[in-house]
Every structure is written in structure tokens, then in C-alpha cells.
């Protein structure tokens, strides 16, 4: 069942329940009022007859009372008033009813006990009461049929049923109309979403109203599409660049080995070819390791386990490991603000953070003629700041905006070994640790890479 139909049926059910409830209440109140009104009329008739019969009104005799009862304009169908003395013996009846000479004992006892008795069954009402005159006491029993009240109730019931039926139809039409209008933007959004596929991720869901919930849903969906499109483009770029970077050393190795097989060279020449192939293998190994690290850095954060890491110790470990690989490098560390509380040196990190520090030191030394990098270490206001400064080739201003893209290399770095993975990997690692990374550079002068990480366990 469609949501539109569900909404409409729910609307009809609620509205119908309300209409029926109010109709029942109206009918019950009117019925109760009719019974009270007929009771008042019946009681007035009984008391009037008893008063006229008793000795309280001397001008009225038995025959005159008969005439008055017979010609009363306020009588109702099956009207009958019977007067009994205190012993239950009938003394007057209007109209004459010789069949009931005595009042039934149970009814007599009930009237005497409660001074008044009344019942109304579908309009057939019976009222019994004790009339206390100035000189005598009478038991008055009045009965009649409330034809007018029953007819009115019957007409009201039919009117309410027809009104409910018509109201339900109108409410149903209104419910379907408004559910159609309310869900129209969603249907339009569904239609637009159905046209979006992997081949046209540039399409977006259009929104007319920027404030309602559906518009916010469309905006959030568009933002999700932006992220998906960005991921697709990054994946395509990654695959393309990775394929190119992997092909280059493999092509070089293939060419060198083919040349070696075609020519009969000396052992020295073969040794030189093997050294060249070994360099290509190392380059291929470094590229593969870089791709693995980049993939790990881009994994879901929920799988990225963290534990306490002391940053000053990690920095010294990174320096030692880099110098073992490249003894010709020079890494000087300058300690600035150093806290007394060692907890301020600890961050929630992962061993992959060492990869980021080594990459920054390695890049600085590799692109500097003197193979030197100066690292400043400062802790303040709950933040750990590391700045890596070198005096090398620098980065052109037009390349700075793309420097964090995977496989991107600045124009003046093409003659240096590398694959353009390091800075992209490092930036992602810093982001995973809740930090940020920035670069300030002047071409052919210096480059300073600054990372800021939150301190504390």
C-alpha cells in the first residue's frame, strides 16, 4: 500500500471516529433532554389532575374534572391519569378504566417508599407519586407515550447517519487530495533520484522550498551525492594514477631485462643492469607500501583503533628510524614550550602517526640541497604543534592548492624520486587524529609544514 493511501485512510479513520463520537454524544444529550421534558409534562399533568380532584380546589367537581381532562389541548397519545387513595383503591381515572380498580401492591409500596416512581421505556412512560393535599393524600399514577419525542429522536438519528455518511465521503475526498499534495514533492524527488546513476552523479535533486522537512531531506541527499561523487572521482583518479605509477617501473624493468637478453655483455654490464632493476624494484616496493598505507588511512574511522601515544617519544623514534634509512640526512629538533604535566604530551593516536612524521621529515630533507630539516615542538592550550621547516626548492604558489591530492606532484619536483603519495597520506593521518595540517612555502627559499594535534588522554 502506498504511503499516500495510508495517510488518506488514516485521516478518514480519525475524522470518521470524531464525527461518529460527536454524533453519538449529540443523540444521547438530545434523547436525555427529551426524556426530561416528557417527565416534566407528565408530572405537571399528574399534579394538576390531583390538585383539581382534591378538596384544595372547591369549585371543581368530579364531572367538571372529566370535562377538563377530555378537552385538554396538552394531552399526549395513550395519556392516562389514575388517582388512588392511600390504601391503593382507585378513586378517579381519566379516561375511565374500570379494569384497574386497585394499584398493584409492589408499585404501591415503591411509590410510598420513594414518594415518586418513574420509568421510561422507548417513550412509554409511567409516573407515580404521592400527592399531599391540605386535607387528603392521593397516589397519582400518570402514563403516556411520547410520540413527539420519539419521532424527533428518530428524525435526528436518520439525519446524523446521513450527515456522517456525507461527511465521511467529503473527508475521504479531502484526505486523498491533501495526501496527494503533501506527498507530491516526495514523488518528484523519487523521480529525480531514479534518474541518478553511476554515470551521471553530477545530477542533483532540485528543491523549491528551502525550509520544510522535505527540502532538508533533499539537501542532505544532495550533500551525500557530493560525497559519493567525490569518492568516485577520487577512486577513478587513484586507479588511473596508481596504474600509471605501477606501469613506469615495470616498463623500465622489462626494457632493461630485454636489452640484457639481446646483448652478450660483460659481468660488469650485467651487474649494472641488475643494480638498475633493483632500484626499480625498490621504487615499486615503496609505491606499493605507500598505496597500502594510503588505503589504511582512508579506511572507516570505526576500524581505526587508538591508544595513548606520547608525542615527544614518537617524534624521536621517527627521527631515529629516518636517519637509519638515510644517514646523510640531518634532522634537528627544537623543543619550545614543554609542559610539566606529562599527560599533556599524550594523544589518542595510532602507530600510523609515525608514518606521517617520517614522511614530513623525509620530504623536507629530500627536496633540500643541504638535506636538513628543523623541527620545532611546542605544547600550549591543550594542543601539540609541530613545524617542519626546510630551505629547499619550495612549492610554487599555483601548486599549493592541489598538493594534498594523491599522486599530485609540484612542477619543480618532477626530477626528484617519488610518487606524490606522501603528503596526501600524511594529511589523512593527521585528520584521523583530529588535527589539521597546513603548508606555507616560498619557491626556491623555504617550506614550513605545520601540524596541530589535540593533546591529553
Question: Notable features of this structure?
Answer:
457 residues, alpha+beta, Beta-Lactamase, Helix Hairpins, Heat Shock Protein 90, 3 domains, 5-stranded antiparallel beta sheet, 5-stranded mixed beta sheet, 10 helices, 53% helix, 18% strand, rod-shaped
Question: Which second-level CATH architecture of the largest domain applies?
Answer: 2-Layer Sandwich
Tell me the overall shape.
rod-shaped
Number of strands: 12
Number of domains: 3
List low-confidence stretches: none
Structural class: alpha+beta
User: How many helices does DSSP assign?
Assistant: 10
What's the SSE pattern? HHEEHEEEHHHEHEEHEEHHEE
The helix content is 40-55%
Give average pLDDT, whole number. 79
Instruction: Enter the CATH topology name of the largest domain.
Output: Beta-Lactamase
Question: Can you describe what's shown?
Answer:
53% of the residues lie in helices and 18% in strands. The chain has ten helices and twelve strands. A hairpin with a 2-residue loop joins strand 9 and strand 10.
What is the secondary structure topology, with strand pairs?
Elements: H1 3-53, H2 62-70, E1 80-84, E2 90-94, H3 105-114, E3 116-121, E4 124-132, E5 137-145, H4 147-194, H5 213-262, H6 267-297, E6 307-310, H7 311-325, E7 330-335, E8 346-349, H8 352-366, E9 372-380, E10 383-390, H9 397-400, H10 422-432, E11 436-442, E12 446-454
Parallel strand pairs: 7-9
Antiparallel strand pairs: 1-2, 1-5, 3-4, 4-5, 6-8, 9-10, 10-12, 11-12
